[in-house]
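Notebook entry, structure prediction.
Reason for the run: the old model in the group folder had no record of what sequence produced it. Starting over properly, with the input documented here first.
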Amino acid sequence: MTTSVLLTDQEPTTRGFLERHLALSGFELIGSAEQRPDVVVAGTDRDLARWRGEAPVIVLGRQDAEVDERLRAFRLGCDDYVTRPFHYDELVERIRAVVRLTRPEDAVRLVAGPLELDARARVVLLHGTPVPVSRREYALLRRLAVEPTRTFTRAELLREIWEYHATARTRALDVVVSRLRRKLRLYAPEDELLETVWGVGYRLLGELPGLGGTR
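New structure, fully documented this time:
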């Protein structure tokens, strides 16, 4: 399930940078305000007023924004406030965090190709057959299945699932991926799930029929 982003910030350098990098990070950039985005990255209070109540809004504020200015944005309904210059990776995580609050993953049965995941029962079905998984295996599989065509970096997955914030080397992710891959192959030897993108991380393999729906 791809996250759609509407950029209303008009500062040319910032806008050009975000258009390039957000697309490379797997986000869908909406070019018209006629479409309802999953999140709005705004530069002014006017943009905030336009989208308040319709989509979550992250305001990109001035570097020298005073506390009163930031408080006003929150009182007008913004969901997050980021001052410039911002760190791109942090902005991406803030976008995902805001979207998670408004589109909770656990509220739906997630379908990704031959896989179905039920958060309430923590059940994984592969071609309709239940696959026994551990808590970590389920969390990893569900995170990948939410955006099955996107490559998740190792650091991202370790941070989101294991809450590792340090850069210390660990094999925790590789062990879980290896164990989960063996389980999936037992039930569907022909399906190539859990693709390794060397030097980057993992994805669920996007070229599958019916990929990326929810119900």
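Summary: Residues 106-214 form a domain with the Arc Repressor Mutant, subunit A fold (CATH 1.10.10.10).
The old model has been moved to the deprecated folder.
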